[in-house]
Amino acid sequence: MPLILGIVASGNYPRVTNSYESIATVTVGAGGSSTVTFSSIPSTFKHLQIRGLARVTGSVVQNGTKVQFNSDTGANYTYHTLYGTGSSAIAYGEANTNQSFMDKFAGASASSNVFGAIVCDVLDYLDTNKYKTSRSLGGVDNNGSGVIHLTSGVWRNTNAITSITLSPFDGFSYVQYSHFALYGIKG
Questions:
Q1: Quick one: pLDDT at residue 17?
Q2: What is the DSSP string of 1-63?
Q3: Alpha-carbon Rg of the chain, whole angstroms?
Q4: Is 107 helix (H, G, I), strand (E, B) or coil?
Q5: Residue 177 DSSP SS3
Q6: Which residues contact 3 (CB under 8 A, 6 or more apart)?
Q7: Which of 56, 99, 117, 148 fits 63 for a cystine, CB–CB 3.0-4.6 Å?
Q8: Which residues are CB-contacts of 88 (< 8 A; sequence separation ≥ 6)?
Q9: Is the dihedral of CA 53, 104, 5, 182 positive or negative?
């Protein structure tokens, strides 16, 4: 039977399995944080999922989040993104860069107390026979004038992923109460 995002087909009705397991959570404290790192990731899952609810400093409506695996800051990443605002759609990408991209969270110019949400899957994080890929979906509702993003990335490295570091672009920080969770997905 196929396993698709935690649902296993059983007869004519799907049943939910316990496919997701919490590995770690981070809630940003007073003063904010320029990075969030998940380290010592266990090697007991097939895929990983990052869920984030965050806001960043800086005078922007939304700000992207960088993703780096195993502290690799070399030009070993490529990403593509598509986003829409309700009135326009834009696509872009970057190759041979020092980070992947995990969509955008709300910035300081967004409506007061607005946070953005992201779900990012990191596929086959242990497979040492291929590069690692990620895909994320995120959005910010700025009181009716928000944006939604769909992003994919590749880390051109065959090492198993043991740590993930997230940080806002442009030197900004995550504000207090920003929350991140890392889940393992069973195969």
A1: 58
A2: --EETTEEEETTEEEE---EEEEEEEE--TT-BS-EEE-S--S--SEEEEEEEEBB-SSSSEE
A3: 17
A4: coil
A5: coil
A6: 17, 19, 187
A7: 56
A8: none
A9: negative
For tokens 């502290």, name the residue.
71
Which single residue is written with the structure tokens 């291929």?
Answer: 130
The amino acid present at 151, given as its one-letter code, is: T
- Is the pTM higher than 0.85? The answer reads yes
User: For residue 110, what are its two tokens?
Assistant: 């967004």
Task: Specify the DSSP class assigned to residue 86.
Answer: S
Q: For tokens 């991209």, what's the residue?
A: 101
Tokens of 119: 């779900």
Res 147: pLDDT? 87
Tell me the C-alpha distance between 64 and 105, whole Å. Answer: 6
Q: What is the pLDDT along the chain (187 residues), one digit of tens a residue?
A: 343 444 444 445 444 456 899 999 999 999 999 999 999 999 999 999 999 999 999 888 888 899 999 999 999 999 999 999 888 999 999 999 999 998 889 988 888 889 999 999 999 999 999 999 999 999 998 777 888 999 999 999 999 999 999 999 988 999 999 999 999 999 7
Q: What is the DSSP letter of 175?
A: P
Q: Which residues contact 30 (CB under 8 A, 6 or more apart)?
A: 176
